[in-house]
UniProtKB/TrEMBL annotation, chain A:
It is a multi-pass membrane protein. It comes from Paratissierella segnis. GO terms for cellular component: plasma membrane. Residues 95-305 form the ABC transmembrane type-1 domain. This is ABC transporter permease. The keyword Cell membrane applies.
Automatic annotation (TrEMBL), chain B:
It holds the Pfam family OppC_N. Keywords: Cell membrane, Membrane, Transmembrane, Transmembrane helix, Transport. Gene3D superfamilies: MetI-like. SUPFAM superfamilies: MetI-like. GO terms for biological process: transmembrane transport. InterPro entries: BP-dependent_transpt_permease (IPR050366), MetI-like (IPR000515), MetI-like_sf (IPR035906), OppC_N (IPR025966). It comes from the Bacteria. This is ABC transporter permease. It comes from Paratissierella segnis. The chain crosses the membrane at residues 48-68, 80-102, 122-148, 188-209, 247-268. Residues 75-268 form the ABC transmembrane type-1 domain. The keyword Transmembrane helix applies. The keyword Ribosomal protein does not apply. It is a multi-pass membrane protein.
Length: 320, 281
């Protein structure tokens, strides 16, 4: 197991290194000049030069990259062009909100998608399964802003039950009332992202369950006289879970993408909203920092899912 | 049995594939004949925010423009963007998948590693930044989407190639001294065409989701009508949560996005079922 974990961590580190390098060069080789947006053109050239120097923009791309890596090792992501605060500080204020949203969505999607997927596989080819398949087809084709609009129209405009945006009603309340307030604001964004993601989890659970149910050892279990429910829960589910967990890990990247749109619509104060706001200001360090943190979160999620899979299926860690 | 039927014969017997095909056909016709169906919406209309039905099929927006005309012209740009995105994805993804699957060894694992990295990265945020900075002309947006759509295609191609390149006729081709590039781009490419085709229809679908997303976030081409751009205008005018509520303004473009995506997904599923009869229920 130790060898498997070491190998997996090395791979994760490599992915992380390549992704930060790609993002650094993509962002730095863009044609726009951040100084134009940062500094009033009426200012003198000396002031502009001083600011270039302050942001390290006067050095060559190679030197900027070395500085960037060194600072990254120290946990320093640079200074925001716009707010002049350390990027790590800006991001850390936003990260918990995004993680909260993603956490709710992952848990909900697994809790709903897996049982329905198993049910659908059990009733393969019957009416209920066909109906679920149609719903899944619509679900994987969903456009996130459309969902958000529908929910807003229904719950905020028509029934006036839920708030239209933000994460809490200002000024923030204290104690339990704050928690309730935040949860109330989280309902629509979570519901939107959940609906957009649950279909894939359901589909993968269903398909892998169907594959597993055709295996010889399942037939053996049945012929031993084991009840259907027990066969599915004890024998089949564990193996059927492997593709579902893998997919959940892989979906993190696209979920983060959906979160950008969801957060922008619901003014949810997370990293997605931060990215959108930073784009219009060409705030390179914040954009870069947001990517690094998002990529890191996704990579960590992937390690976790890989470890869970290795724990479920011992063959994987032996091969590793 | 299966071999007695041509692909076409099986296809017209596949309900999912046929529904998808006609959906795609409808969008394509809308896109091609947009100028004949509706005049290009520009300037100002006389009646603002008219509900659907009263002479205006889909109603009008806050400038008095016909939402139906906007949606029809939106079909045109959506098709254009997804077609270019698919082209870009194919130009990168196909060779990457074919070469890494055929060569295996070092080149194979390097390309495979790259595919994994790009599959892991949160792609939409990356597209947002690039689209924001390269400038939002429709062609730029299409190319950016294509640049990040190749990994799934490459993966599918690679897996299929790995399987095909073990086959004896490839072995035979090697023994005959046929150069690698001809084996790859002639003998293998034809035999991985099935899964590649399925993946390309899926990329058509996701490309329009990305395009609509980028336009909705204000990163699309401001001079072109696209479904995401209509949604952005409606959202900016608070058409979703304000009273009176012009729901037709945001509902129709959304319905068309979903229709487009579902049609391409169904088409892909249909083709897949015909190529792998085992996956059929």
């Amino acid at each position: 197991m130790a060898r498997y974990i070491t190998k997996r961590l090395l791979k994760a580190f490599l992915i992380f290194f390549v992704s930060i390098t790609i993002t650094f060069f993509i962002i730095r080789f863009m044609p726009s000049n951040p100084v134009d947006l940062l500094i009033d053109p009426k200012m003198g050239p000396e002031v502009q030069e001083a600011m270039m120097e302050e942001f390290g923009l006067d050095k060559t791309k190679g030197e900027q990259y070395i500085i960037f890596l060194k600072q990254l090792l120290q946990g320093n992501l640079g200074t925001s062009f716009k707010s002049r605060e350390p990027v790590s500080q800006v991001i850390m204020q936003k990260l918990p909100w995004t993680l909260l949203l993603l956490f709710i969505v992952v848990i909900l999607s697994l809790a709903v998608g897996i049982p329905i997927g198993v049910y659908s596989a059990k009733h393969r080819g019957k009416f209920s399964d066909k109906l679920i398949n149609i719903v899944v087809m619509v679900g994987i084709s969903v456009f996130v802003p459309f969902l958000a609009f529908l929910f807003l129209y229904l719950f905020s405009y028509y029934f006036k039950l839920l708030p239209t945006g933000g994460a809490y009603t200002p000024p923030p309340a204290k104690g339990i009332r704050y928690v309730i307030d935040v949860l109330k604001h989280a309902i629509l964004p979570s519901l939107t992202l959940f609906t957009a993601n649950v279909a894939s989890i359901l589909m993968y659970t269903r398909n892998s369950m169907i594959d597993v149910l055709e295996e010889d050892y399942i037939r053996t279990a049945y012929s031993k006289g084991v009840k259907e429910n027990k066969v599915i829960k004890v024998h089949a589910l564990k193996n059927a879970m492997i593709p579902t967990i893998t997919v959940t890990g892989l979906m993190m990247g696209s979920m983060v993408g959906g979160a950008v749109m969801t957060e922008s619509i619901f003014s949810w104060p997370g990293i997605g909203r931060l990215i959108y706001d930073s784009v219009s200001a060409l705030d390179y360090p914040v954009l870069q920092g947001s990517f690094i943190i998002l990529a890191l979160s996704v990579i960590i999620m992937n390690i976790i899912t890989d470890l869970i899979i290795a724990w479920i299926d011992p063959r994987i860690k032996l091969e590793g | 049995m299966q071999n007695n039927r041509t692909f076409f014969q099986s296809f017209i017997r596949n309900p999912m594939g046929m529904i998808g095909f006609f959906g795609v056909l409808l969008i394509v016709l809308l896109g091609i004949f947009a100028p004949t169906i509706a005049a290009y919406p520009k300037g100002y209309g006389t009646e603002i925010l008219v509900a659907p039905g009263s002479g205006m099929l889909f109603g009008t927006d806050n400038l008095g423009l016909n939402v139906f005309a906007e949606v029809v012209w939106g079909a045109r740009s959506s098709l254009y963007v997804s077609a270019i995105a698919v082209l870009v994805a194919a130009v990168i993804g196909l060779p990457a998948g074919l070469i890494s699957g055929y060569k295996k060894g070092k080149i194979g694992s390097v390309i495979d590693g790259l595919i994994d990295i790009f599959l892991t990265l949160p792609v939409l945020p990356l597209m947002i930044v690039i689209a924001a900075i390269v400038g939002s002309s429709i062609i730029n947006v299409a190319v950016v989407i294509g640049l990040f759509s190749w990994p799934s295609l490459a993966k599918v191609t690679r897996n299929a190639t790995l399987r095909i390149s073990e086959m004896q006729y490839i072995e035979a081709a090697k023994c005959l001294g046929i150069p690698s590039y001809r084996i790859i781009f002639k003998h293998i490419l034809i035999n991985v065409a099935g899964p590649v085709l399925v993946n390309l229809t899926l990329i058509m679908a996701t490309a329009v989701l990305s395009e609509s997303g980028l336009s909705f976030l204000g990163l699309g081409d401001p001079t072109t009508w696209s479904w995401g751009a209509i949604l952005k205008k409606a959202w900016d005018a608070s058409a979703v949560i304000d009273t009176p509520n012009p729901w037709w303004w945001w509902l129709w473009p959304s319905v068309f996005i979903m229709f487009y995506v579902i049609s391409f997904n169904l088409l892909g599923t249909g083709i897949n079922e015909i190529l792998n009869p085992k996956s059929r229920e």
